[in-house]
Amino acid sequence: MAKVSMVERELKRQKLVAQYATKRAALKEIANDDTKPMEERFKARLKLAKLPRNSSPSRLHNRCQLTGRPKAYYRKLKMSRIMLRDLASMGQIPGMVKSSW
C-alpha cells in the first residue's frame, strides 16, 4: 500500500493540470508560433515558466486505484499487476482465469 501523502500529492497534481491546461496551451501556442515577433514569443515562454511546475502534464504519474502503487501499472485496467492477480485469483474479474500448463 502506497503512502497516503503520495496518493494525495498525485491528486493535487491532477487538479493543477486540469486547472492550468487552457492557459498552458494558449501560452505554448504563442511561444511556438513563428509568425509572431521574437519578443512576444519570449514573453510567452517566461509566463509559461512562471506557472506551477506541478501543472505540467508530464509530471503526472499513473497509480493503481486500489493501492496507489506507482509501478507495474496497467493503463487499460487502472490497477497494478499485484491487485490484478489478487482479484483474478478471487474470481472478481469476469473472464479472467488462472493460467496453468
TrEMBL record:
SUPFAM superfamilies (alphabetical): Glucocorticoid receptor-like (DNA-binding domain)
Keywords: Ribonucleoprotein, Ribosomal protein, RNA-binding, rRNA-binding
Gene3D superfamilies: 1.10.287.1480
One of the record's GO cellular component terms: cytoplasm
BP term (GO), one: translation
Top-level taxon: Bacteria
Pfam families xrefs: Ribosomal_S14
InterPro entries with a match to the protein in the record: Ribosomal_uS14 (IPR001209), Ribosomal_uS14_bac/plastid (IPR023036), Ribosomal_uS14_CS (IPR018271)
Family annotation (PANTHER family): 30S RIBOSOMAL PROTEIN S14, SMALL RIBOSOMAL SUBUNIT PROTEIN US14M
Family membership: Belongs to the universal ribosomal protein uS14 family.
Function: Binds 16S rRNA, required for the assembly of 30S particles and may also be responsible for determining the conformation of the 16S rRNA at the A site.
The protein's name in its UniProt record: Small ribosomal subunit protein uS14
Gene, per the UniProt record: rpsN
